[in-house]
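Hey,
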Amino acid sequence: MEFDLGDLLEREEDLEQELRDISQKYGMNPVHLKEIVRYSSKGLSQSDISEKVGVSRNTVRKYRSKLVSMKKSDFKKLVLITSLLFGGFYFFYEMLSE
């Protein structure tokens, strides 16, 4: 099976748009949301996430609270999107650049 970088980039743009839509729905910054989900999934503390993302600990706390109260379907979609963006697509980029 042949991979087309254009297809991967188009898919990534679709995922980023979905992320923006979810962020807007819940009143969050999509860049911060993506990073907070990423580092939370790695088990980092609120303080560590705050430092890495460049936001206050209070912002991290608020985002985590919103994640907990998010509709289950939106939360599942968000987890899938961030997994693909941080795992899947970047893995493919590295493979294709070798």
